[in-house]
C-alpha cells in the first residue's frame, strides 16, 4: 500500500518517496499572531495535522519532523502593540501581544484535536538565518541593494542557466500575469515591477535589527524570507513536504521557492507542495463586511472541537469547503453515536481500508464512508470490531474523551441537571409500574421541555431500563 500525494508544483498525484524514511520533514505555514485565528486557519491546521498523523503511522512517530512557523513580525502586530500597551517599549509590547495571541492559537487548535508540531519556530528568532540567505542571494546576483532595501529579482532567476525552476512554476503564471494579477508595490528603487522585498529599513516605531549586505541602517525582513529561513534551519536546504492554504501559492510560496532554490542553487525546495482549499460560510465567502467572519474561538463557543474537526474532514482537503449549520449539527449527531459505540473500546490497529483511503492523498471524504461501515460492524460485532473502529477514529484525531466524559460535556453545556433528570426518570418508572400512564406521559413531556430525550429499553437481564440524552 503506497502513500500518494498531490503536488501543486507538478499538478499530479504521485507516490510519496521521502528523502530519508527515517527523517521525514514537513513544513506548514502557521499563524501571524496578532489576533484570534479565523476558522479558515483552523482548516489548514486540521489538514496538516491529519498529514502529520498519517506520516507518523507510516514511518513511525520518531521519524517525522513537523515544523509550523509563527510569524511574530508584522505591521498588524506593531499596530496592536502600540494600541494595547502604550508607554511600554516597542519590542516588549510586541512580545506581550505575540505571546498572548500565540497561546490563544495553541489553545484553539489543540481543542480542534491537533497534535503539537515537532518545532514551532518564531520569525524573530531566525533573523541571522534570514540575513545569511539574503547574503547568498546578493552574492549570486539574484538580489540587489537599493536605498537600504534588498530586493529579489525574478528576472535574474529566470535568466540563470541552472537547474533551478523558473519563477512562476508553482503558481503557473508568467511574469506578465503576475504583474496584472498582483498588487505590485511600485517604487523608484526597483529595477523591475516584479521584484520583491527581502529586507527593508525600519521606520520609527518599528522593530529593527542589523541589516545584511553592508546596509548601515537598521531594518526588518520582508514577509517571504522568514519561511525560507525557518525551513532551512529546521529541515535543511531540501525537505519532503511544504503545505499551506491555497491562498499562499502566490505570492508567498512562489517567492519562498525562488529564494531557497536561488540561495542554494537547487532544483527544488520541497519534494511535494500541498495546499488546502478555501472555506466558505453557508455558500458565501467569509468576510467581515458580510457579517460571516468567525474565529476558531467563536466556533468553539458553540461546538466541541471534534465537531468542527469532523465537519471539515467530510470534504477532501483540496476542495472548497462550505461550512453550514446543518452540516455541523449532523457532525455532532455522528460523534454522539461514534462515542457511544467506540469511545471505551480498547483500540487495536486502524482499519486497512481507512489507511488506504488516507494514503490516497488524504482522502478523508472516502475515509468517512469507511468509518460509517466500521461503525455498523462495531455496533453489531465484538471486541475486535470495536477496537478497529476506535483505532481508526483515533488515527484521525477523534475520541479524545471517554464516552461518559463526552456525554457529560454535552450535558454540562446544555445546563441540564443530571440529578434532576435521574429523579424524574425514577418517578416516571414508578408511575409506569403502578400503571399511572397519565403521570408517566406528563413526566416525559416535562423532560422533553427541558431538552431531554429518553429511550425505554431492556438491560441484559431483560429488565426495563430508561436511558436519556440531551436532545
Automatic annotation (TrEMBL):
Its cofactor is Zn(2+). It catalyses: tRNA(Cys) + L-cysteine + ATP = L-cysteinyl-tRNA(Cys) + AMP + diphosphate. CDD domains: CysRS_core. It is found in: Cytoplasm. GO terms for molecular function: ATP binding; cysteine-tRNA ligase activity; zinc ion binding. Its EC number is 6.1.1.16. Binds 1 zinc ion per subunit. This is Cysteine--tRNA ligase. A motif ('HIGH' region) lies at residues 31-41. Residues 353-407 form the Cysteinyl-tRNA synthetase class Ia DALR domain. NCBIfam families: cysS (TIGR00435). GO terms for biological process: cysteinyl-tRNA aminoacylation. Monomer. A motif ('KMSKS' region) lies at residues 285-289. InterPro entries: Cys-tRNA-ligase, Cys-tRNA-synt_Ia_DALR, Cys-tRNA/MSH_ligase, CysS_C, Rossmann-like_a/b/a_fold, tRNA-synt_1_cat_dom, tRNAsynth_Ia_anticodon-bd. SMART domains: DALR_2. One of its GO terms (cellular component) is cytosol. Zn(2+) binds at residues 29, 227, 252, 256. Belongs to the class-I aminoacyl-tRNA synthetase family.
